[in-house]
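Weekly structure sync - notes
Attendees: PM, LS, DV (DV joined late)
Agenda: review two folding runs queued last week.

Item 1: First target. Sequence and structure tokens pasted below for the record.
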Amino acid sequence: MKKAIFETDFKLDEIKPEIGKTYPIFGVLNDLEISGSRIQARINSNIVADLIVTDDAQIKVLVSRIFDTGIFFVEIKEISEDGIVKGFCSTIIFGKKQVLEC
């Protein structure tokens, strides 16, 4: 059984994200900047994504999930020379909360 695990052909390829394409990104919601109806999320400290949120309840959920992991579907709009990615986040999937609130 041990031998079979080590004989698998598991490979990890590095890709360069392309502008205009949407990618699922596993990461941490580091920060939210809320300015009127404009919301920007900082993901993994190097991705800045605009969000469209129309409901105050959704904003409260986002604020409560800062520093939680999730999958962020981000359409890439710009990649700076220092590695900062700017884009539009269309969907966020958070997992089950790991902390009990008292």
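Item 2: Second target, run right after the first with the same settings.
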Amino acid sequence: MQQNTATANRTKRHIQLQVPAEVYKKFRAFCLDEDTNMRAKALQLIEEYTHEKSKSKKKSFLEMNKTEIEALYGEATRRAIKKHHAAGLFTTHGDEKGVYRLYPDGRKEYIEAYTEDSATTTNISSSRTKKQRTSKNKT
């Protein structure tokens, strides 16, 4: 018996409020107009408020599923692109044709993509240039 009573006591909490007289009078008048109990109306308002807040509350990142995370990243990316374009800067994108810069005016400028072979060749030639410079400086 005591266990059921203890559970019931834990599920309900009592709230005491000090309400300004004017607010109390107006609230009482509204409740009389609606033919409702003031306590019941206060409880209804609290429930509606908490339900509304819990609906609008954003989920924690850890509570999101894959689809929600992808939507979050997509929205953040779109906002960042708009921000860059508003500042007059280009953004870099890719499609089946290759990598391109997208300018605020909508113009696409494809850029040359480097492969590992061309990057290695570039590194070799730049290292030779450095060696040649150091040998020329010694002489």
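Discussion on item 2: The helical segments are 2-11, 21-34, 38-56, 66-86, 116-138.
Action: LS to circulate a short write-up before next sync.
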